[in-house]
Amino acid sequence: MCIIATHLNGLPVRSSRICKSGGRRMSERVLWLRLCVTGPTPECGEIVGLRIVDRQARRTVFDAFFHPVREDGWKSVPAGGVNVDLANRLPLNIYVDGIERILSGATLLRGEHVERDIRFLRAAGVRIEDQVVERSVTAEHHKRLASGIAVPTRTGNRACRPIPVG
Q1: How would residue 96 be classed by pLDDT, with cut points 50, 70 and 90?
Q2: Is residue 98 part of a domain?
Q3: Would the N or C end of the chain have less CB density within 10 A of its end CB?
Q4: Side-chain half-sphere of 28: how many Cα atoms within 13 Å?
Q5: The organism sits in which domain of life (predicted)?
Q6: E strands in 70-139
Q7: 107 — alpha (psi -120 to 50), left (phi > 0) or beta?
């Protein structure tokens, strides 16, 4: 059994897991998910783009666009100021095993709409372990704004982050 530790022997530590089996410390692996989808739910849309970023290593571990499976699917998608043609891309099902391997090492999944993104990934056949914690940046932001403890800020292309109080 593992617990999340913020302090170890009275000293603050970077988000770590302390495992009772041998007392080993395993650092938490946070992956940032960003999907490009064609609809609001998996029933009426599909994934046409996926980026997975390892936040600790500060590197992109997966970044691809996919050919739509549905006949009425999108032909291109706007990304970075240009339209990406999806006609010559491979479908998502080709990448499912690799995506599962990447996500299997995660202890925390984050993203602007991570709950929605996980629903889309599961509908596409990607198995995601239930014990992986999912935290939506957008949901946290709205919750803090509603409680009056944060003000919206935006710096460059970074996600909107609340200003801590106290």
Answers
A1: very high
A2: yes
A3: C
A4: 23
A5: Bacteria
A6: 76-79, 82-85, 108-111, 133-136
A7: alpha
Encode pLDDT of 128-164 as tens digits. Answer: 887 667 666 666 666 666 676 655 555 554 555 544 5
User: Residues, the chain, total?
Assistant: 166
Neighbouring CB atoms inside 10 A of 49's CB total 19
Residue 77: inside a domain: yes
What's the token pair of residue 159? Answer: 């996600």
Report the CATH number at residue 74: 3.30.420.10
Helix (H) or strand (E) holding 102: helix 96-104
**Domain assignment of residue 137, given as a range:** 2-147
What is the count of structural domains for the chain?
1
Distance between CA 34 and CA 12 in Å, rounded? 31
